[in-house]
Amino acid sequence: MIGGTRLWLLRHAETEWSLSGQHTSFTDIPLTPNGEAMGRLLGRSLAGKSFSLVMSSPRQRALRTCELAGLLPQAEVTEDLAEWNYGQYEGRTTKEIRKESPAWTIWNGHTPGGETPDEVGARCQRVIERAKEAGGDVALFAHGHVLRVMAATWLGLQPSEGRCFTLGTGTYSVLGYEHEYTTTLVWNQSVQAVVEAIE
Hints:
Elements: E1 6-11, H1 16-20, H2 33-45, E2 53-56, H3 60-68, E3 75-77, H4 94-97, H5 117-134, E4 137-142, H6 144-154, E5 171-178, E6 181-190, H7 191-198
């Protein structure tokens, strides 16, 4: 069933820190009211969809998005889907960090006390192996950076190549196969656009 596996990457909906651009890993903040609405829209866009496996980050923003999408009862919670650990840069914006480390990004810079791209990639590989065991469509509720690394890992790229995959809040993406090759089927799809298309 490996060739039939598809990963649905579901980034959590809006939070105050996603709006401000603050790096959010272990800080457990809730969705904004608009984020709550985004989560409900996500549920509408997934209505009637069946998943062989649902996995979620343990952070409340991911779990709440999963709940609003109607999939929390079957969710398997795993730290492997937690957001990239930003260490001392938790809660800070890239602009603030660059005052002391010019040209820094999470993809190419040192993150004091945090994870490396390869460490995040190893977590993503474990999730991918679990998904392949389940087969079919697998839903992953998580965060922007870890899901970008997930895409790179699925495609056989280096974890740092996740920089190529912009991912908005409250969006979904689908990774799968074309013949025996891993590929991107859908990327950064706005749930608002999906619901408008349905209506």
